[in-house]
Automatic annotation (TrEMBL):
Protein keywords: Membrane, Transmembrane, Transmembrane helix
Transmembrane helix recorded as keyword: yes
Protein name per UniProt: Uncharacterized protein
Annotated region described as Disordered, given as residue ranges: 341-370
Organism: Streptomyces fagopyri
Source taxon at top rank: Bacteria
Sequence intervals crossing the membrane: 70-92, 126-150
Amino acid sequence: MKWISGLGGGLLLVLVLASILRTLVVPRGLYSSLVIRWWRGLRLLLRLAAPGGGYDAIDRAQTWLAPLMLVGMLASWLGGALLGFGLLLHALSALTWSQSVREAGSSLFTLGFASGDRLHLSAVDFLAAATGPVVIALQIAYLPTLYAAYNRRELEVTLLQSRAGEPAWGPEILARQWLVDTETALPELYRSWERLASDIGESHSTYPVLLAFRSPRPYRSWIVGLVSVMDAAALQLSLNPGSAPPEARLVLRAGFTALRDIARSLRFAYDADPAPDAPIELSFAEFDAAVSMVRAAGFPAERTARQAWPHFHGWRVNYEAIAYELCRRGDAVPALWTGTRDFATTPVPPARPMDRRPADGDAAPPPATP
């Protein structure tokens, strides 16, 4: 039985090391089963903390998802290492099981109160003593990387609020620009989100725990923001093919490439080369209503909604399925054109500020100062 204990301990330590390297060290989107299991389990438990609640209750509960995942990952690695070294010590000595775990814990956390003068066990003790601080140091070094990526993401999401409303919606982006005569700023918006999409594709596929970090405001979301910018670009390209800026094509390409990178890292299926006429969930009626809204805001459409629909459909088929799945898994704000959720809700339209411009004519003079 001793050799089984030693083999099990060694195998467990190899699995712990592989998980740490895949999650914290290797700079590419490798699948981490530990992260996904913590995500699924904690998401379900936090959903139970808001039984029957609407989106606001779900959002408050899911705010704790990412911090708990980080704590759970560290606890899993340290617990696995403790058990692995305990099994090794039990296999290499006459120590009982409880004594082996006690000595492994003493060495792993560098306390040193339980190690004895046994030369043949010193190597295991020394290795355990090095493992504990290294795992904790890697986790500590991991946090600045996560929060730097989070801050870059949330800066653009916050800046989008004045252009797309809360929650963001693609047609609202176009409508607002023409309502306030800032349509010339659209190319810069597309450039910013092209860069952000590339950043998200790299960082969120490498560190999938970032997907669980929610925005500071409940009606903001990085995935909803990305979908809204892509929808605005696709809508502009389909309605105005002659005057749409080239940046619109670039942000669409960067966006669905980033979403596919994330989908690969999470291992959920998607069509890598969908046909332009493949089915999508968004209906023509919803598209037609959005076109009428943006045209009422002053958007100069070159095509009718019926003419533009096949072109918009051909763009959206590249990203809709992945975006809807990420919105569902992340319990994102139920914005328009972002699919269904796992909780009962209705789509939330963006709130548009009131027009407070002064009426035409001479303004009244300011009151005289005494």
